[in-house]
């Protein structure tokens, strides 16, 4: 076999959205973050360029989140990454926090009742770092509720529920932001995990 020239980019839990043309869109029954066999049936280890997970990791406990990140690590190529977005536990809006809380009601189209954790930038970063990744914060609120935005490109994975792409968040008012990170697999960590 010759060297692969096409990048493999995968959306986990696409939920019927197609915000990322050219990416492979999957649902939990097709590609389960807790079941390596669903991955082995579709992908070779070290073959995936990028994984996008928008509002998926909050459906896992912290420990399950670390395990899921480790599973992804096996299938990401060196320097591959996960772009992960979750509800932001530091966003200072009571209505938002009620919607996204563990066991919360959620909006009508979102199963918040199955949320197991509400991350903030510290817990999400630590979870991916514990799985061997280097983390870059893209959009997040700090402990004081101040919103931070670091430039990122939608061609590397569109997160709809973001300051950048969600029409609810245009102008100076944030209504439904996400905590967004890129978790990058280091070339040097390949042998360690």
Write the layout of secondary structure elements.
Layout: E1 9-12, E2 24-25, H1 36-40, E3 48-54, H2 62-75, E4 76-86, H3 94-100, H4 121-130, E5 133-141, E6 147-149, E7 179-185
Parallel strand pairs: 1-2, 1-3, 3-4
Antiparallel strand pairs: 4-7, 5-6, 5-7
Helix pairs in contact: 2-4
List the keywords.
193 residues; alpha/beta; Rossmann fold; seven-stranded mixed β-sheet; 4 helices; globular
- The total of helices stands at 4
CATH 2nd-level architecture: 3-Layer(aba) Sandwich
Order of strands side by side in the largest beta sheet? 2-1-3-4-7-5-6
Tell me which oligomeric state these chains represent.
single chain
User: CATH class, please?
Assistant: Alpha Beta
Low-pLDDT sequence parts: 189-193
Question: Which secondary-structure class do the elements indicate?
Answer: alpha/beta
pLDDT averaged over residues: 90
Can you summarize the main beta sheet? 7 strands, mixed
Tell me the helix content. Answer: 10-25%
Q: What order do the SSEs take from the amino end to the carboxyl end, as H and E?
A: EEHEHEHHEEE
Could you name the CATH topology?
Answer: Rossmann fold
| Cα gyration radius (Å) | 16 Å
Number of strands: 7
Describe this structure in words.
With 193 residues, the protein is an alpha/beta fold. It has a single domain, classed as Rossmann fold, CATH 3.40.50. 19% of the residues lie in helices and 22% in strands. It has a 7-stranded mixed sheet. The longest helix has 14 residues, at 62-75. 35% of the residues are buried. The model is unreliable at 189-193 (pLDDT under 50).
